[in-house]
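> @MW can you paste both from yesterday?
MW: sure, first one:
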Amino acid sequence: MTAFRSIALVKNKEAQSLSSPQDDRVALVPADVRTLVDDGVSVLVQSGAGSDAGFSDDSYVQAGAELCETADACAEADLVVSLDTAVKLAPLGSSVLLARSTGQIEALENHGGGTVIALERIVESPKVQSDQEILGRMAMAEALAPFIATKSMNDLEIRFIGWSDLFPYCIRRSCNRAPASLKLLSENAGISDMDVVGLNALYVYDSRTWSDPKKAVAKLKRKKANLFDVAVFVAEQGEEAVADYRDDHEMHQFGKRRITWDKEAGRAAAKQGLSLYAEQAGAKKTAKIHAAVSGYGPMELGVIEELLGQAVGSVAVLTDQQKNSSALNSSLSDADLVFVGADSDPVAHAVSAETSITIMLTADGTAGDSEGGGAGTILSADDWALYVPADEMSALVSCQITDILLGKERLIEGLEQLAPGVACARL
């Protein structure tokens, strides 16, 4: 097949009731339809395709799309796009379906037509590592080097103050080295909030984003805590560190998923957790809230960033070492909000029923039903997904799909020379 010159956007679950808030999303928003049209692509949009996400038929027409009434009519396009998990299309013949999940794949296989590219299997190729990611990793490697050399990582208590764009990578590097504990403190934290001192305490901050308004650094020095300013590392060693890293590390063929909303979903979960906590706790100030997050993946980092952006008092990040230790209950004893990746996570069954709200970051089951454990209020992924504006999530996904079509992968040029990260998603 040559280049795709026509693309069709079909409606989610036509003539069916929506089963999940995520079904409101649409794969292409009008702004990106305009980008495709300007690139010379003909775009067909099934009537009502974007209505649940807040995009009218007229907005698509104004962007240059042509409306069609049924999904079968749209199937005549070279490429059909949908986020639906149960779309039913006519035999596609030479058409290609850019699919979201196996529900669509099975439907197509039953029809015996067309080619499927699974959106959620498209990955970077080669793996992308930004200078920012490398700087964060290398800065933390420098900070941890003395403790690794003395084999004292298991005793190290790490505290981050405020927030920096480098901190997500610093956190991942730290947690992978199994410290005794890791916690992030509000940028407004005073010395009384800095709960560990001495030679086994390490405070990490970025003086470019945290001005130390309460002179905490000088006070921590007097208490013999270790201090590390990532801004100093970047200024003095950053350029050389990035160059050395790239020289020493081969580029991986494949990287992260290209279609992802984990960070945004994490931020939405944090917002919903704070909203629910405000309803239950009344006038308690955000700065007095203590949260715990189990894990440090993209979704969990989205939770952390949102919580600190709303100036919660502290966020403890629970590593595998902590989750499997006898001290887990004490680590959660002062947590008002707990964010858990899955019901199987030990944290889900160690939360205090009296004080905590538990937010499940995936939709598998309930927390706190084991002997000796129990959560207060439980909010599952299906609940907090209601807090994600469908138009914002649609715009995020649409931008990523459009970039795959017109950007580095150039999927718009057809199937004959697929980029490796797209080829591995072809079924």
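MW: second:
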Amino acid sequence: MSNSASQWGSPTASRRALLIHGMTMCSNSWEGIAQRLVAEGFFVIAPNLLGHGGRRCTNYQISEFAEDLRPYFALDTSYDVIMGHSFGCLVTLSLLPFLPKTKETTIILVDPAIEITEVQFNSYQNVFLRWTANHVNTTEEHMAENPVWSRRDCVLRTLGIAMVDPDTVEVFKRNKSWSSSGLLKNIPPHIKVTILASDPKLDANCILEHIPRDAERLDVKVFTGIGHWIQYECPDAIMDAIPLPRAKL
């Protein structure tokens, strides 16, 4: 297992969660959600993806990002919840073959792009370059642009961008298209998937028309007035999507 990861809670906790960050983020960016999960009895692990958190990236295929995480499933290690945000959703879906068929796993996709065309990849490339080239926004600038974010989240956003390998932009050059709809139409019986989609009017990654209709074991929730960074803007929405033991009345 890579040493480039953040952990919260006790390894002996009865439940486990694996959190997969998005492009230009880092493992620490899950701090707020991770602390909430620990309070609910989880042990939480968040790896730094290739090219992030000070790591180098030399292979830019999305499948390699998933393969790099295979050690987190060694020795039959399993998770109750696996959550991805943005680009991390593509990686999360690529992890499905690693999951044990004997355990039910909840997959939560936070504003995923279900179908990505070459035009969209080019657009994402331009955003990546804008975020990482020359001037990296300060914490104060992030706070001004995102007034509902906590200062902690703004600090971690700045940290993630500062620690990304600029060569990771090659991901957008090497992958010309991507489709997750086939996976979502055929979700294995031991997996449940919830898509948390941000407001389509706020530059959401998730285009609702791309989500398969009537797919089994797939739930979709759309949040009006909430943008791409659902975990920062409305962390309660994230926690509501996680199956938790109900108190006995």
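> thanks! Strands lie at 5-8, 15-20, 42-47, 81-85, 105-110, 115-116, 178-179, 191-198, 218-223.
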